[in-house]
Amino acid sequence: MSFAQKTAVAQVRTGLWGAGMNIKGLAALVTGGGSGLGLATAQALVRAGAKVAVLDRDVGGFDGLGFVCDVTSEASVSAAIAGAEAAHGVARIVVNCAGVPGGMRLVGRDGPVDMARFAQVINVNLLGTVSVMTKAAARMMAADVLGADGARGIVINTASITAYEGQVGQGAYVASKGAIVALTLQAAREFAAKGVRVMAIAPGLFATPMASEVPPEVVEAITSDAIFPRRFGQPDDFANMVLAIIANPMLNGEVIRLDAGVRLRAR
Ligand SMILES: NC(=O)c1ccc[n+]([C@@H]2O[C@H](COP(=O)([O-])OP(=O)(O)OC[C@H]3O[C@@H](n4cnc5c(N)ncnc54)[C@H](O)[C@@H]3O)[C@@H](O)[C@H]2O)c1
Fold it and tell me: Taking the CB of the first residue and of the last residue of the chain, which one, N or C, has fewer CB atoms within 10 A?
């Protein structure tokens, strides 16, 4: 046996090498859990045995604990996190899916972009995510270690492949998602000392109510440019990615593209 193999065996014996977080019984928060990717994630976490609370402006189709919450309001976020904690205990899994589209040109027919509209997209997609991530992570950091590796919990944020391949007319959305990408490593480094991982998923085109606003010709272009499979991602594909990330303790500080290998055209 090599030195590395002997070390690994010793770590497993002493419990220093984690087998990932066992979702069963853990409290989870899913923002945007009333619809689309968030709803599928909340449902998958319930099936995996988590105690799930959904935070959404419209808790919609989720058949469980839901808090009507606007992620742009700190008071609303704090109240929902406290309410979920009172019901389920400190959340160890946080998945940020709340988001809005934001089609607008930087300079359009009417001149430069309306900064209030631009800011609204940043407010929800970026500041809302940061607000929930930091408030929930602070609670995780103050909670007991869960087991091997000194893990206390995980935050998974939702970026977009547009963060890397900004399309014409998507400046506000691209800026909001690019910032989520940039924050992934930074937040993971800050939270590491307390055993909190931070990951992000950058989806391609997924079949949700948000995607119903995408013009058919753009849908056709994105799906036909995919490597394989050439179809919409399904919300369950996203939810399965979330479960896989939670289960694998070696994933940290990284953004995973979930897009069937597509590269976007300019528009
Ligand atoms: N569907 C796609 O193709 C796609 C691709 C890349 C990234 N994304 C991202 O995935 C995430 C989920 O999107 P989706 O496709 O499931 O869309 P969706 O519209 O089905 O769900 C978004 C949810 O966020 C909620 N929400 C919006 N603003 C909120 C606020 N201020 N406070 C609380 N909740 C709010 C909505 O009520 C809704 O339930 C978003 O961040 C989106 O940008 C989606």
Answer: N
